[in-house]
C-alpha cells in the first residue's frame, strides 16, 4: 500500500541560511576561545622558559663566584691600588659575557652593548672561552642581557651593630638577568662614575618581559691576608 504524505516539505533556503549562520557564530566563538587559550599557554610557556633560563644563568654565576682565588688569578687588585683608570675597579668582574660575531666566534661584550637571543658566560680567567655556558631563547625576538654591578661593602655590620672589617675583604656584586624585546639603550641607565646601574628603571621599561636579580659575594684572599695594600678596605 502506498502512503501519501500531504504537505511534506524540506528546509527552506532561509532556514538553511539561519542554521549555517548559527553554526558560523558558534565556530567563531569556539575558535576565538581556543586561540585565546593557545596564546595564554604560549605566554606562560615562554615565561617559564625565561624563569628557568634565569635560574640556570644565576647558578652558573654562583659556580664562578666559588672558584678559589679567581679575583687574584685574574690579576685584579684593590679599589685604591693598581687601577689603570677611573673605572677600572668598577669594570673588573669575574663573570665574562660573550656573544657570537658574524663568523660564529664568541667575543666578550661591553657592559652597554645590547643583549642577544643567544649568549654565553664564562669566568674571567677562561681566555679561550672553552668553559663557556650557552643560553638561548626559543623565541628569536627575545633577547637576554646580563648586568653586573659591584656594591660598596664597607658598612657591613655584625648582629651587634659593630663594624665587621673581615667582611670588607669580600666583594659583593648584584647581577641582573634581563629578558626583553625590541631595543634598549643601556648607556642611559649606567653611571660611569659609580659603576651603578639603575636597575629599578630598567625593569620597569615597557619592553622588558622578565628580570631577576641576585647578589653574589667572593673573597679576595690576598687582600684579607694583607698581601695587597689598601688599609684593609675596598
Automatic annotation (TrEMBL):
The chain crosses the membrane at residues 12-35. Keywords: Membrane, Transmembrane, Transmembrane helix. This is Uncharacterized protein.
Amino acid at each position: 500500500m502506498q502512503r501519501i504524505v500531504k504537505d511534506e516539505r524540506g528546509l527552506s533556503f532561509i532556514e538553511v541560511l539561519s542554521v549555517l549562520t548559527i553554526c558560523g557564530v558558534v565556530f567563531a566563538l569556539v575558535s576565538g576561545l581556543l586561540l585565546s587559550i593557545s596564546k595564554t599557554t604560549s605566554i606562560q610557556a615562554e615565561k617559564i622558559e625565561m624563569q628557568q633560563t634565569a635560574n640556570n644563568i644565576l647558578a652558573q654565576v654562583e659556580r664562578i663566584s666559588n672558584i678559589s682565588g679567581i679575583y687574584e688569578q685574574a690579576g685584579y687588585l684593590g679599589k685604591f691600588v693598581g687601577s689603570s683608570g677611573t673605572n677600572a675597579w668598577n669594570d673588573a668582574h669575574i663573570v665574562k659575557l660573550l656573544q657570537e660575531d658574524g663568523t660564529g666566534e664568541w667575543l666578550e661584550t661591553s657592559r652597554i652593548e645590547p643583549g642577544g637571543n643567544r649568549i654565553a658566560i664564562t669566568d674571567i680567567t677562561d681566555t679561550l672561552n672553552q668553559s663557556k655556558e650557552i643560553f638561548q631563547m626559543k623565541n628569536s625576538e627575545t633577547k637576554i642581557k646580563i648586568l653586573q654591578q659591584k656594591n660598596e661593602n664597607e658598612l657591613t655590620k655584625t648582629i651587634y651593630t659593630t663594624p665587621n672589617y673581615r667582611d670588607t675583604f669580600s666583594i659583593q656584586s648584584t647581577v641582573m638577568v634581563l629578558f626583553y624585546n625590541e631595543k634598549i639603550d643601556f648607556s642611559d641607565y649606567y653611571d660611569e662614575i659609580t659603576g651603578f646601574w639603575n636597575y629599578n628603571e630598567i625593569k620597569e621599561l615597557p619592553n622588558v618581559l622578565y628580570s631577576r636579580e641576585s647578589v653574589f659575594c667572593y673573597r679576595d684572599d690576598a687582600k684579607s691576608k694583607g698581601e695587597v695594600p689598601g688599609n684593609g678596605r675596598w
